[in-house]
Amino acid sequence: MPEPIPPTSFTFAGPHAPLHGLIDFPEEPGFRPTVVICHGFKGFMEWAFFPYLAHLLSERGFVVVRFNLSGSGQQPGEDRVSDLDAFRSNTHSRELADVLAVIAAVGEEIAPGRADAKRISLVGHSRGGGNAILASARPELRDRIRALVTWAAVATFDRFSEDQKTLWRELGEFPVQNTRTKQDLALGVGLLEDLEANGEALDPTRAAAARSCPWLIVHGDRDDSVGFGDAEKLAAAAAEPFELLRIEGGDHGFGAKHPFQGPTPQLIQALNATQRFLMKWGNP
Model confidence over 29-53: pLDDT tens digits? Predict the structure, then answer.
């Protein structure tokens, strides 16, 4: 792959805090179909394969938008959490609101004159896949979301035991460690309360049945973070049309690590399937 053209940055006022992102533009002029990439838990827009994926899709003629969730606690260019309070204050509803705000900004604050707001595809990894599913099921976006691709997506955000939840409430926070950076982080109890209060609205499996756009579900069968069973649950609930791609030997990142060292065979399989799917459904 040739040396990528540097992406263009953007910032606009999100529903909770400023949202920062990057746009990879294709060489083709005029309005182009758009892909919005959603990162997952402890992820960020410049993590590992996201720049590579964005450049690849821009070469296929898409305007590609990626961004940091406001609750990620990371600023552009950072590869570790610097705003511990933002990370602690994050909720699932806040993440979904950020994703919806970015979609609404396509063609307006984001890439005016270049991004076609009526031809948007969503690509989400892990928890970002869950958010992308939720967004794709929104009735007001039905005419704008042309295609959905999820990589290692969660079938549920409720991934804690009752004992963990009890301790979470007692402490007022839930400790987590970023194994890559060795940072000790914490989730505020607001995330748990949000999930309990808005369970149906924040249920990716329920949304899987409600969405109508074509969907490619990509998942590795050696994923220790989000097991392949989540992909099976999503596929069992999904409305047509959808496809399930099981990547043999694929872990949660399809072998990719940060900093990125190049694509693995499993990642190449995910990349090839994704670009073929988006060329078919996201660029009519």
Answer: 999 999 999 999 999 999 999 999 9
Cα–Cα distance measured from residue 142 to residue 257, given in angstroms and rounded to the nearest whole number: 34
C-alpha 126/C-alpha 86 separation (Å) is 20
Tell me which residue has tokens 């003629």: 61
Q: Is 215 helix (H, G, I), strand (E, B) or coil?
A: strand
- Over the stretch 167-219, which tens digit does the pLDDT of each residue have? 999 999 999 999 999 999 999 999 999 999 999 999 999 999 999 999 999 99
**E-strand stretches of the chain:** 8-13, 18-24, 32-38, 63-68, 115-125, 145-151, 173-178, 183-188, 215-220, 242-247
Q: Which of 265, 81, 255, 262 is nearest to 180 (CA)?
A: 81
Contact present, 14 and 98 (Cβ < 8 Å): yes
Residue 1 is predicted with a pLDDT of 46
Domains of the chain, earliest start first: 8-156+199-281 (3.40.50.1820)
Report residue 5's pLDDT band, with 50, 70 and 90 as the boundaries: confident
Q: What is the mean pLDDT of residues 241-268?
A: 98
SS3 at position 187: strand
Rounded-to-integer distance, Cα 90 and Cα 43, Å: 13
